[in-house]
Amino acid sequence: MGVKKEQPKKTEKAKMETAKIEKVPEEKLLKVKLVRSLIGRPQKQREVVSGLGLRKVNSEVIRKDCPEIWGMVKKIQHLVSVEVVDKK
User: Fold this and answer.
1) Residue 16 is inside which H or E element, if any?
2) pLDDT tens, 47-58?
3) 75 contacts 45 by C-beta, under 8 angstroms
C-alpha cells in the first residue's frame, strides 16, 4: 500500500504569477529573399536554400526569428537579403 501525498493548493498569488509567465511577447519574423543565382554554387549551399523554402531568384519566404534560421542565413548570406518584420 502506498501513501498518497497531498498536493499543496495554489494560492491566488501563485495563480497570478503563472498567468504572467504564460503571456507570450510579440513574435518577430524574418523575410528572406534569394537575390543571387544558385548556378555554380556548392551542393551544401543549394540544400540550405531549399531548406529555407526558396526556389528561384527573387523568391521570398517568411520564417520565424530563431537561431536555427539565422544559422542557415549565415551560411548563404552572400546569396540572400534578410529583413526583420514584426508580426501584426
Assistant:
1) helix 12-22
2) 999 999 999 999
3) yes
Which residues, other chains included, contact 52 with Cβ-Cβ below 8 Å and sequence gap of 6+?
32, 61, 63, 69, 72, 73, 80
Instruction: Give the domains, in start order, of the chain with CATH numbers.
Output: 26-86 (3.30.1390.20)
Could you tell me where the beta strands, DSSP code E, fall in the chain?
A: 28-34, 60-64, 80-86
pTM: 0.69
C-alpha cell at 57: 531568384
User: Residue with C-alpha cell 503563472?
Assistant: 18
Q: Decide: 65 and 22 in contact? Cβ < 8 Å.
A: no
Which residues, including other chains, have CB under 8 Å from residue 42's CB and lie 6 or more apart?
A: none
